[in-house]
């Protein structure tokens, strides 16, 4: 997966953590965009032993991009905006 | 008429609300995303700076008008964004909602317009669950709403207008596709040309887009067949066969898949609306008349969730459904506009029929997928396991679901529904509509349990 920032990236930087490690993202990024453009290869691990997953539909339908956001529970990373100081845990 | 609820703030929902407000109503307006606008004309979050022309191209005028109406209507309705309707109780006429991912709610309604949209239709293949593989719609949303590409050198696979449009958008953004693979033969597309003239401007746009892709230098294979997405933990290549049955391996860093759309019709199902199989569209579609009335009193449908028609048709159908609701409630409604919309919708239906014939879902490709392919990506259930369920006498989809768990996962059959039906029908030697469809179940999307 090489999610790459291509256009419209002149936005303020924000920082949050994933599994304790800092990710620098941009205001307006969804968690999915922020994590994948920030260099992570996956956002969750399949419960059925076939490896990492990194979302699929990007529009809230497939449910394959769930992450745990401290304080707000399980969220779809494709429809949740990244916010400064968020603490995200991959499962 | 006491409480009217409109679910969805895409093109259909926006135009429905506009007509209700015009008639003096103040509907409750529910949208699952933080903002409305739909998918084709999705707005990026605050902070993005591209103007409408660079975001929506030829659709920019329509997008601007739609967004202006969306913003004008919000204060004139009970606007509830970030709210999922996860269940409908038709006898009690109540909706169960979840706001902000945690706050439960219940809404009593007298009438309901469901404008729930659609999702890409895919064909599972080896490697399709790997990071780096998305739907075509997903590849487009990434670029439009986030300014990112799914890769710098993606392969786009599928058929239909979205395939070409996405390819051109990626070229423009500087991520030139390594290959555009269209499963439909050129001649099949050309054959349907006369029917496509029912909407000459859109047809012409399509032809010009097709030409631009052909002149772009991006490899464009038609009548081709994807075999497998290769890679270990990340996408490295697509293996495919051309029309002459020669095998190729095209290196790439991402793959997007999409063969038209499938209605997001789970709420219509829970509302008690019966479904029929549309053989042209190759989709199960909730029953409604041309105005959007369903057999369930007080329940109306519009937009792609009521059968795929595209964003332009969704606007017409949204307004039309609201006018039907008003007329049925003996409220003043615009008769001239009603006649105009009926005429436009009839013409557009002919265009859509030709489009469906030109870009069919490759049901055979899905039906013949190898035993080891995960037909269900949520629970990692293989086509072989589904075929075993067929052998164990599962004559239809819900029985096969109980036996194999296909469709029981987190997406609740949104993605595996059409390909699983193709596999099951083929295994049983019956037509695809004979195996039925996965019934909608509440909650229509996962919700937290306290």
Automatic annotation (TrEMBL), chain A:
Transmembrane segments: none annotated. One of its GO terms (molecular function) is oxidoreductase activity. InterPro entries: 2Fe-2S-bd_N, 2Fe-2S_ferredoxin-like_sf. Keywords: Oxidoreductase. The keyword Protease does not apply. It comes from the Bacteria. The keyword Magnesium does not apply. Pfam families: Fer2_4. This is (2Fe-2S)-binding protein. It comes from Falsiroseomonas algicola.
From TrEMBL, chain B:
The keyword Oxidoreductase applies. Residues 3-314 form the FAD/NAD(P)-binding domain. One of its GO terms (molecular function) is oxidoreductase activity. Residues 375-425 form the BFD-like [2Fe-2S]-binding domain. Keywords: Oxidoreductase. InterPro entries: BFD-like_2Fe2S-bd_dom, BFD-like_2Fe2S-bd_dom_sf, FAD/NAD-bd_sf, FAD/NAD-binding_dom, Metab_Enz_Cyan_OpOx_G3PDH, Opine_Oxase_asu/HCN_bsu. Pfam families: Fer2_BFD (PF04324), Pyr_redox_2 (PF07992). This is NAD(P)/FAD-dependent oxidoreductase. It comes from Falsiroseomonas algicola.
């Amino acid at each position: 997966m090489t999610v790459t920032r291509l256009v419209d990236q002149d936005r303020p930087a924000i920082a949050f953590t994933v599994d304790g490690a800092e990710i620098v993202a941009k205001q307006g990024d969804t968690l999915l965009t922020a994590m994948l453009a920030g260099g992570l290869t996956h956002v969750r691990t399949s419960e059925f032993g076939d490896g990492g997953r990194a979302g699929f539909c990007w529009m809230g339908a497939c449910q394959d991009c769930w992450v745990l956001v401290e304080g707000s529970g399980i969220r779809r990373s494709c429809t949740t905006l990244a916010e400064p100081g968020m603490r995200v845990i991959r499962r | 008429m006491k409480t009217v609820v409109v679910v969805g703030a895409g093109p259909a929902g926006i135009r429905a609300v506009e007509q209700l407000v015009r008639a003096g109503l103040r509907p409750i307006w529910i949208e699952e995303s933080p903002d409305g606008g739909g998918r084709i004309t999705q707005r990026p979050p605050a902070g993005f700076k591209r103007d409408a022309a660079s975001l929506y191209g030829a659709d920019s005028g329509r997008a601007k008008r739609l967004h202006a109406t969306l913003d004008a209507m919000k204060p004139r309705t009970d606007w509830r964004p970030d709210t999922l309707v996860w269940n409908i109780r038709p006898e009690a006429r109540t909706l169960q909602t979840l706001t902000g991912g945690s706050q439960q709610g219940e809404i009593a309604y007298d009438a309901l317009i469901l404008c729930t949209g659609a999702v890409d239709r895919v064909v599972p293949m080896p490697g399709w669950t790997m990071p780096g593989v998305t739907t075509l719609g997903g590849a487009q949303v990434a670029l439009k709403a986030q300014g990112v590409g799914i890769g710098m050198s993606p392969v786009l696979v599928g058929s239909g207008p979205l395939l070409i449009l996405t390819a051109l958008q990626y070229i423009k953004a500087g991520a030139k596709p390594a290959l555009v693979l269209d499963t439909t033969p050129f001649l099949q597309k050309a054959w349907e040309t006369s029917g496509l003239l029912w909407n000459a401007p859109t047809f012409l746009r399509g032809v010009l887009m097709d030409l631009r892709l052909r002149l772009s230098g991006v490899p464009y294979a038609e009548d081709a067949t994807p075999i497998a997405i290769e890679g270990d933990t990340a996408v490295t290549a697509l293996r495919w066969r051309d029309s002459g049955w020669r095998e190729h391996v095209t290196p790439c860093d991402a793959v997007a898949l999409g063969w038209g759309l499938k209605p997001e019709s789970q709420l219509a199902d829970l509302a008690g609306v019966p479904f029929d199989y549309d053989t042209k569209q190759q989709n199960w579609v909730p029953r409604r008349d041309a105005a959007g009335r369903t057999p369930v009193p007080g329940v109306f449908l519009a937009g792609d969730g009521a059968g795929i028609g595209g964003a332009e048709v969704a606007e017409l159908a949204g307004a039309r459904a609201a006018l039907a609701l008003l007329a049925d409630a003996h409220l003043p409604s615009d008769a001239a506009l009603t006649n105009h919309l009926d005429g436009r919708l009839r013409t557009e239906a002919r265009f859509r029929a030709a489009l469906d014939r030109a870009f069919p879902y490759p049901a055979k490709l899905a039906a013949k997928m190898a035993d080891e392919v995960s037909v269900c990506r949520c629970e990692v259930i293989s086509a072989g396991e589904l075929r075993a369920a067929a052998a164990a006498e599962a004559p239809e989809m819900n029985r096969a679901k109980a036996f194999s768990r296909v469709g029981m996962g987190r997406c609740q059959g949104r993605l595996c529904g059409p390909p699983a039906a193709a596999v099951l029908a083929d295994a049983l030697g019956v037509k695809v509509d004979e195996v039925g469809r996965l019934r909608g179940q509440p909650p229509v999307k996962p919700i937290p349990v306290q």
